[in-house]
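Hi all, long-time lurker, first post. I run a small reading group and we've been trying to get comfortable going from sequence to structure in the token notation. Rather than ask abstract questions, I figured I'd post a concrete chain and ask someone more experienced to write out its structure so we can walk through it together at our next meeting. Sequence below, copied exactly:
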Amino acid sequence: MYQLLLIVHVLIAAVVIGLVLIQHGKGADIGATFGSGASSTVFGSQGTGGFLFKLTGGLAIAFFITSLALSSMVANQYKKADKQAIPQQNSVPETKIPVPVDSGK
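-- Answer (accepted) --
Happy to help. Here is the structure in token form:
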């Protein structure tokens, strides 16, 4: 489950990066107003602003949700690992430690 969510997370991140690079800046809107290349756009004369803006926002929300889910999974794994740790053994008192006796031979 973790690997699948991680793959989806990385794919969403790559798509968001691509969408941000595709979008026009604020200064490009004035050119579209006077008709510079507006007739050859796929999304009409208003450009891709509304569609790409909504798609980028939706993918950003999905990115944050997958980030929270991944961090929750990792936190739960650390809690489980902490509970499964091997307890330390009690130290043996010094009086019960066997000491070799020198027989003098």
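A couple of things your group might point at:
The chain has three helices and no strands.
Residues 1-20+45-74 form one domain.
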